[in-house]
Design brief:
alpha+beta; Cytochrome p450; five-stranded mixed beta sheet; three-stranded antiparallel beta sheet
Length: about 425
């Protein structure tokens, strides 16, 4: 049996259950459908004072729950047009209110390229962008995704049943990301568990960075240690260890924390519609539209925030400098001003860009890798598990979560 299929299922469940303590801070305890509330809010006004979870009526643990309102004023945008305006004006709506330098302070997603702006962000992103372009999807698939997918399926292909969130979806992205770092499979869950403690992640990958500086291999860390950052003076220099660590922490946090949920959402949407699932199984050209429509219809990260850098009038509301603007991308992706019947999961609708992967300069760097993981993973399930369907004797999957949405268990039978 392969190392991938011997991963600790209980540990995976602990790390990747939205209802567990690990993800509670993102509003995993929210089990209602927020979209009717978001529709009502968007109809009332494009922008409202307050945070998304407050306006939705969720009072449990969530992002920004503990931030005193006296420190910053909070506003939330619910229309596609308002979110688009914010993305198009990064000078006013910034990813960080302060300068970012990965060489100073502790490594974290907020002390990384994610929070940079302007020329600094362009310089750092240009170093890694080529490794995440569509043309490089094959590199990811051959080196890490395909093998992981099939090893995981081997673990349950002969059993006639599986729980796809734990047995399949959760492990694929974390094994892909850690594999691209050169981390052994046996350490994959350990490094994922350390996401909340970036210093621990750094200590795990520090020896790998040192080894790749001595002898590069065909992996992402090797690309980073050989990359040259061009300064404002035109000179070049290699990335420091701290800069590599900041990117690794960002990629691990973002990559292993979102794609598994989105894959589960897509699988659930198809399994709940057996005729559509059969159509996709018969015509794989429908798989990409099915994934893209799920990204619009039920985005796993339905909110991102921006800091207001100067006083501005914004879609009928005055935003003072220093405020936080929360972009409710979930609501924007179902704006009837942009999509007909937006609450319907319809893979035949005319494709229009949504905010599933953000927009503008900070559009998700790993979106093509995420799509490659989902296409490869779902395609392999359809290839190898005949008559795949939801288990009629088990509790059906539901979508839960506030700032990280995903499916509960996805129990299936096949054969």
């Amino acid at each position: 049996m392969s190392s991938a299929t011997t991963l600790d299922r209980d540990r995976i469940r602990e790390l990747f259950d939205l209802r567990g303590a690990y993800l509670a801070q993102t509003g995993g305890g929210y089990e209602s459908d927020p979209y009717p509330v978001w529709h009502r809010l968007r109809e009332q006004a494009e922008v409202h004072p307050g945070t998304v979870h407050e306006l939705t009526g969720y009072t449990g643990p969530a992002l920004f729950s503990g931030l005193p309102q006296s420190d910053r004023e909070h506003f939330s945008a619910f229309s596609f047009a308002a979110c688009d305006t914010a993305y198009r004006n990064p000078e006013i709506f910034a990813s960080s209110p302060v300068p970012v330098d990965p060489n100073v302070g502790r490594p974290s997603p907020t002390n990384s390229m994610l929070s940079m702006g302007g020329a600094q962000h362009r310089r750092y992103r240009s170093l890694v962008q080529p490794s995440f372009m569509p043309a490089r999807a094959g590199w990811w698939i051959r080196n890490w995704i395909e093998q992981t997918v099939h090893e995981l399926i081997e673990g349950f292909a002969d059993t006639g049943s599986a729980e796809l969130n734990v047995d399949f979806c959760a492990a694929i992205p974390v094994l892909t990301i850690t594999g691209s770092f050169g981390v052994p499979v046996q350490q994959a869950l350990e490094i994922r568990a350390a996401v909340g403690n970036p210093e621990t992640v750094v200590e795990m990958i520090r020896p790998i960075v040192a080894a790749r500086r001595e002898r590069p291999e065909d992996d992402l860390i090797s690309i980073l240690v050989q990359a040259e950052l061009r300064g404002e003076d035109g000179g070049t220099q290699r990335l420091s260890d701290a800069e590599i660590f900041s990117f690794a922490v960002l990629l691990l946090t973002a990559g292993s924390g979102t794609t598994w949920k989105q894959m589960g959402i897509t699988l659930t949407a198809l399994l709940q519609r057996p005729r559509l699932l059969a159509a996709v199984a018969a015509d794989r050209g429908l798989l990409r539209p099915a994934i893209d429509e799920a990204l619009r219809w039920q985005a796993t990260d339905p909110m991102f925030s921006r800091y207001v850098m100067s006083d501005t009038e914004f879609h009928g509301v005055h935003l003072p400098a220093g405020a936080v603007l929360h972009l409710c991308l979930g609501a924007a992706n179902r704006d009837p001003a942009r999509w007909d019947e937006p609450d319907t999961y319809d893979i035949t609708r005319r494709l229009r860009p949504s905010f599933a992967f953000g927009s503008g300069a900070h559009a998700c760097l790993g979106m093509n890798v995420a799509r490659a993981e989902m296409v490869t993973g779902i395609g392999a399930l359809l290839d190898r598990l005949p008559n795949l369907r939801l288990d009629p004797d088990a509790e059906p999957p539901r979508f839960i979560g506030m700032y990280e949405r995903g499916a509960t268990e996805i129990p299936v039978v096949f054969g």
